[in-house]
Task: structure prediction
Amino acid sequence: MKKRRIKEYAISYSFLLPFAVFFITFTLIPIGYVFYLSMHDGNFLQAHFDWVGLKNFKDVLVSPDFQKAFKNTFIYMLIEVPVSQFLGIFFALLIKKKTKFTHFCEIVYFLPMLLSMVVASVLISYILSNNGPLSMLFKVFGLKPISWLNGKFSAKMAVMILELWKGGTFFIFVYMSAMRSIPLDCIESAKIDGANVVQESIYVVLPLIRNAIILCVTMNTIWQFQIFESVYMLTNGGPLGATQTVIYEIYQYSFKYYRVGLGAAASLMFLLVILVIYGVENLLLRERDTGRRLAK
Result:
């Protein structure tokens, strides 16, 4: 009997073996190596690294560059997440009902997703350049063109525009799919009760796509913490570090300044920040769900 049970356990756990190998190889070992690097100083061209202990973590905390990068990253997250979710829901509401213009709108919304971030960055950089179409349009109306990529505030706006245009369209399709899965009885009941389009959207549609909203907010929060390509291609962190992000600074210190240990320490600290924010979001959402169940 014991041999049979052991055999059943062995067969069951053997199905987990591929995932376990993948998880250990590409997750645990890299994280362990990053932790090892964070305790040392040097670069990949050296034969060995010098042990420095927690010095790299201290240097990250007092570094003005990393402090500015953390601040910019949180600014991007606090602005991008609500704006992209609002626009995603708004445009999804416009095309949730299938009409003769729906397919055309879906194609227009889907086009940015087909472009790589590099191509999208080059396109946005040309549009916002001093001799680009937007500057020419300003001149036609007698307005002074804005040097988007040379001002601290305008450069941030340029990065946000690129992120909204390139990444925000994904959420439109998520919300559109969620809205089209709502039972028609709920919509018809609201109309019978005299609800207009705005009331229908606020009191019927939004509560029924709550799970989709939670998913999109969580994904978008994580994505905003990982901003790199748009900053690298558009502004290269400038002007005067106004657009630099944590991921961009980690890249700079690891592969440009060859301070691999400092980059590794910043990576671990940034990972901890993301985990804390993710845990707080889950805690708040779980408490809200628990309160609703108890109310029922």
About this structure: The chain is about 75% helix and 0% strand.
